[in-house]
Amino acid sequence: MKTYHVICIKWGSYYTASDVNKLFSMIRRNTSLPIVFHCFTDEAEGLDPAIQAHPRPIMNVPDALNKYAYKKEAGLCEDTLGGLTGERVFFFDLDSLIVGNLDEFFTYPGGNGFYIIKDWNTRGTHVGQASCYSWVVGTLGFVKSYFEQHAEEVLNRFHTASQEYLSAKVIEKYGQLHFWPDNWFKSFRFHCLPIGVLRPFMTARLPRVEGLKMIAFHGYPGLSEAVAGTWTTDASSKKRAHGWKRLYKTIKPCPWILEYWK
C-alpha cells in the first residue's frame, strides 16, 4: 500500500513533545491508511519512538530576521526536506484537533498540486490558512530561497503574516491555490466559540458539519487554554485585552476537547 507522510514542526518552548505525540496519536487513530509521521525539531527528547525526528531546516538569514512562523511556511519548503524529495507530505500545526476520519483527505490531492485551507478571515481566494497544507517536496524550494535572499523585504511587506507570503509565492508561480473542501476544516475562534457577548455564559462546541475532520486553533486561545477556560497566556495579548475587549476575549472551559486531544 502507498505510504502517506505527515509532518509537523516544533521549536521554542510553547509546544512540547507531548503536543507532538498527541497530534501523532490523533492522526493515527483517524485513518486506516499507512502513515509515517515526521517531526522537524531542535529537541526530539520525549517524542514517541514511532515518530521520525529530523533537524529543523536551516534558515540562511541573520538571526534578527529569522522570526515569526517563516520557520514553518518558508523553512519546510526546502527541496530536500527530510530526504522526502518527490514525496507528497501533509503538514499539520501542533494546535490542530482531529475530530473525523482522514482517509479521503490523504487521497484527495491530485498530481503535484499545492493544497491548503481557505483562510476564513480573508475575502477572495488569494490567502490560504496554513494550519494544514500539502505539497510534493521539491516543488516549493523557491519559497524558502526567496525568503533567504530577500528576508528584510518579505518582513517589511508581510510582517508576521507568513501564510500570506507562502500563498503569494505559490500563486506567483502556479497561478492559483488549491483549497481543501470547506466542510473538512473549521476554526475554533470563528466556528466553535459563541458570539462575543455570550462567551462568558456559553461553552464553545463543535460545529455540526458533515465530514468535519479538523478544528484549527490558530492564534489564541490555544488548545490548552481552551480546555482550561483561559483566553491566553501571552503577556502582550493580555495587555491588548484590557478594557472592553475583555468582554469578548473570554472563554468557558471546554473539557470536551480532551475526548479528541489525546
Mean pLDDT: 94
How far the N terminus sits from the C terminus, by CA atoms, comes to: 27 Å
Helix content: 25-40%
Compute the number of structural domains. 2
Spatial order of strands in the largest sheet: 3-2-1-4-7-6-8
Largest sheet: 7 strands, mixed
| General form | globular
Compact summary:
This protein has 262 residues and is α/β, with parallel strands linked by helices. 26% of the residues lie in helices and 18% in strands.
List key phrases describing it:
262 residues, alpha/beta, 3-stranded mixed β-sheet, 9 helices
Describe the structure.
- The protein is globular, with a radius of gyration of 18 Å.
- The protein is an alpha/beta fold and 262 residues long.
- 37% of the residues are buried.
- The longest helix is centred in the first third of the chain and has 13 residues, at 17-29.
- The model is unreliable at 235-241 (pLDDT under 50).
- The two termini are 27 Å apart.
- It has two domains: 4-180, Spore Coat Polysaccharide Biosynthesis Protein SpsA, Chain A (Alpha-Beta Complex); 194-211 and 221-259, no CATH class.
- It contains nine helices and ten strands.
- Helix 7 links the parallel strand 9 and strand 10.
Topology of this structure?
Blueprint: E1 4-10, H1 17-29, E2 35-41, E3 52-54, H2 70-73, E4 88-92, E5 96-98, H3 103-107, E6 115-118, E7 128-136, H4 141-149, H5 151-158, H6 162-174, E8 178-179, E9 185-187, H7 188-192, E10 214-216, H8 223-228, H9 235-240
Parallel strand pairs: 1-2, 1-4, 2-3, 6-8, 9-10
Antiparallel strand pairs: 4-7, 5-10, 6-7
